[in-house]
């Protein structure tokens, strides 16, 4: 079933006259929201966005990846100004956003997770920053939990070293160190703006001309690593990736993942591990070539050591660690086979 736009209004948050042609209308911002079984958080996301966009010429798109929780009906009835696109199947994050990129007419395109909620004035600040920094291609804001707790918001590109520091727990244990805390910049003051390698896709603002220049998301990634790959290509095109702490976004995290049964998740309960591993191998093969096998070695090697350390223990927590590591080794090998060593993206939906 091909994607279909079932709600296509003239405008949202714009002071321009209704008689002006929709095709010729200028927008400051086009907002892309991808939703998969996130009805209640999506409602909250759109409510916050609606309040933020009152002073902006803004168009909002919601791409529904075949939700079964009434999300489509909720958007159609409660937010008639939103352009609602029914994908017809679960396209994943990259392909669903690319549908919006083809239609977007804003000078800037905003990616916003359906479980991410803009704090007051954040969208206006992001727009002002982009307008004042013409060399910036993409930027993100300060992500927080509901309680205001910090979430990683400005990050280094993945590497064998960074992945090992994360897997081993050294990054968490020595989070104040510039070396050990390098991947998520946990050593840095989160209230200071900075350059970045990449920022999470929960919220980002992109210069639409740059987005078209680099070609949008790589649809080989169904979920995870697509924003890392995009930021890498934007930087290769000689544009900056920026982090602005005064742009604040509350992010729940993992709301879509919770709706997928029988999936092995990370310790946080939010990440679908097999999908992460597949995308990781695809990313390493694309950007590091034949060295991609080394990330498989890091992932399986670390968990093999962890399994051997804990398998003979009678303590429940150590037995659980051994079981978890055995599962992780099996999943890593499975993902490596299914992606043919990072050369092939399995049929979607994953």
Summed up, the helix count is 11
Q: Name the beta content range.
A: 15-25%
Structural class: alpha/beta
What summary fits the major beta sheet?
10 strands, mixed
SS elements, strand count: 10
Overall shape: globular
pLDDT averaged residue by residue: 90
Give the full name of the CATH homologous superfamily of the largest domain. Answer: Spore Coat Polysaccharide Biosynthesis Protein SpsA, Chain A
Assign a percent range to the helix content.
25-40%
Instruction: Count structural domains.
Output: 2
Low-pLDDT parts are: 8-21
What's the Cα radius of gyration?
Answer: 21 Å
Oligomer: single chain
Brief rundown of the structure:
The chain is of the alpha/beta class and 350 residues long. Helix content is 38%, strand content 18%. It has 2 domains: 4-153 and 190-257, Spore Coat Polysaccharide Biosynthesis Protein SpsA, Chain A (Alpha-Beta Complex); 261-336.
What does this structure look like?
With 350 residues, the chain is of the alpha/beta class. The chain has two domains: 4-153 and 190-257, Spore Coat Polysaccharide Biosynthesis Protein SpsA, Chain A (Alpha-Beta Complex); 261-336. 38% of the residues lie in helices and 18% in strands. The chain has eleven helices and ten strands. It has helices at residues 39-52, 71-78, 92-103, 122-132, 160-168, 170-173, 208-214, 226-236, 273-288, 293-310, 316-338, and strands spanning 4-7, 27-35, 58-64, 83-86, 106-112, 116-118, 136-144, 194-195, 203-207, 240-251. Strands 1, 2, 3, 4, 5, 6, 7, 8, 9 and 10 form a ten-stranded mixed sheet that branches. Strand 3, helix 2 (71-78) and strand 4 (83-86) form a beta-alpha-beta unit. Helix 1 packs parallel to helix 2 (71-78), helix 5 runs parallel beside helix 10 (293-310) and helix 9 packs across helix 11 (316-338). The longest helix is centred in the last third of the chain and has 23 residues, at 316-338. The chain is globular and about 65 Å long.
